[in-house]
């Protein structure tokens, strides 16, 4: 259901949206990307610490270069694809995931 009220459609202030510049959108996009990278860094660090592993031990267990682990945890890079999925599995089912990695 959409409610029209002057310059507002639902909860969207159409005047404000129309007044937003491309520069402002790009700035917000960059800020969102930084925040996303920091969230990924915190998540990676939390998973590793929850497992009780150093960065070097974690690197060896999941077969990812130590430099990559450091980049993830410092927010320089963000895990993607299979690495991101592995981190989620390690977070939800650490014992099973580590057992599978040991085979």
Describe the structure.
There is one protein chain. With 103 residues, this protein is mostly helical. It has one domain: Orthogonal Bundle (434 Repressor (Amino-terminal Domain)). 70% of the residues lie in helices and 6% in strands. It contains six helices and three strands, in the order βββαααααα. The chain has helices at residues 14-19, 22-50, 55-62, 66-73, 81-92, 94-102, and strands at 4-5, 8-9, 12-13. A three-stranded antiparallel sheet has the order 1-2-3. Helix 5 packs across helix 6 (94-102). It is elongated and about 60 Å long. The N and C termini lie far apart (54 Å). The relative contact order is 0.10.
What structural keywords apply?
single chain, 103 residues, mainly alpha, 434 Repressor (Amino-terminal Domain), three-stranded antiparallel beta sheet, 6 helices, 70% helix, 6% strand, elongated
Q: Report the span from N to C terminus.
A: 54 Å
Poorly predicted parts: none
Approximate strand percentage: 5-15%
Query: CATH topology, anyone?
Result: 434 Repressor (Amino-terminal Domain)
Shape field: elongated
> Structural class of the secondary elements?
mainly alpha
Q: What's the helical proportion of residues?
A: 55-70%
| Whole-angstrom Rg | 20 Å
CATH structural architecture:
Orthogonal Bundle
Q: Whole-number average pLDDT?
A: 86
Number of domain modules: 1
**How many strands in all?**
3
- Specify the biggest β-sheet: 3 strands, antiparallel
- CATH superfamily label: lambda repressor-like DNA-binding domains
Specify the number of helices: 6
Order of helices and strands: EEEHHHHHH
Highest-level CATH class:
Mainly Alpha
